[in-house]
């Protein structure tokens, strides 16, 4: 008998959802702001930088919240490690894809988008704590 219990809750019911939602909104706000003040190349560069942070975080959240319950503790720990490894690999692949596949590109805008969205993720405990419960 498998001790892992699949989580029946959809991703939007997990504690990661408010953080991911705020990261997605932040990605769009950064892209629009850069587009408005620096032009369309900066805008889509910032959008790509934000997505390089957002997509791996979404992958990590999906992996970590796949299981629930005390009987799934071992599976959850395993998902933490594999999810983090996958997140790092996905981040590297996305950065390489952006650098090699997108021309013209404003490098500073890519890093601005990436770092701002990453800062939202670093504030996750504050975000989850202040998000209203359903």
Automatic annotation (TrEMBL):
Source organism superkingdom: Bacteria
UniProt key word Oxidoreductase: no
Record GO cellular component, one term: plasma membrane
Main localization, broad class: membrane
TM annotation in the entry: 16-37, 43-65, 85-102, 108-128
Membrane topology: Multi-pass membrane protein
Matching Pfam families: ATP-synt_I (PF03899)
Alphabetical UniProt keywords: Cell membrane, Membrane, Transmembrane, Transmembrane helix
InterPro entries on file: ATP_synth_I (IPR005598)
Name by which UniProt lists this protein: ATP synthase protein I
Location in the cell: Cell membrane
Source organism (scientific name): Halopseudomonas litoralis
């Amino acid at each position: 008998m498998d001790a892992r219990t699949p989580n029946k809750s959809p991703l939007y019911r997990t504690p990661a959802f408010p953080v991911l939602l705020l990261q997605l909104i932040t990605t769009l706000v950064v892209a629009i702001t850069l587009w408005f003040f620096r032009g369309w190349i900066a805008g889509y560069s910032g959008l790509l930088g934000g997505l390089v942070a957002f997509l791996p975080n979404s992958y990590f959240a999906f992996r970590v919240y796949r299981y629930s319950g005390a009987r799934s503790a071992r599976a959850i720990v395993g998902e933490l490690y594999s999810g983090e490894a996958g997140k790092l690999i996905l981040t590297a692949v996305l950065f390489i894809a952006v650098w090699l596949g997108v021309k013209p590109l404003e490098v500073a805008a890519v890093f601005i988008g990436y770092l701002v969205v990453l800062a939202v993720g670093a504030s996750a405990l504050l975000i989850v704590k202040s998000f209203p419960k359903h």
